[in-house]
Amino acid sequence: VQLVESGGGLVQPGGSLRLSCAASGYTSKTKCMGWFRQAPGKEREGVAFIYTKGGNDYYADSVKGRFTVSQDSDKNTIHLQMNRLNPDDTAMYYCAGVEIDRLCRWTEFSYWGQGTQVTVS
Q1: Tens digits of per-residue pLDDT, 67-89?
Q2: Which residues contact 66 (CB under 8 A, 6 or more apart)?
């Protein structure tokens, strides 16, 4: 499975960015796809994910109400709309996925993209 992120960049506080992740190579129609981030000197943390079968989405408390994860109709591309960004959102953002036939947990993601940098300054 290959995951390719795009859409990172530099944005001012209060601004918005939209990340995208295109997946290829999945053999299962049901999966979770999501976003994690890692800031310098910090551990990687889950940001948001979507269970593609039902479209259920889940968020870290720190981004609820500001970020929205969505999927395209082919269910192999997801997006992360990030609004009201602040400097604490600065991090490398990674797309992640797992083939699974039930709702996944944050710890179950097994496929990872290379990451895209988001800088809020």
Answers
A1: 999 999 888 999 999 999 999 99
A2: 82, 83, 84, 85
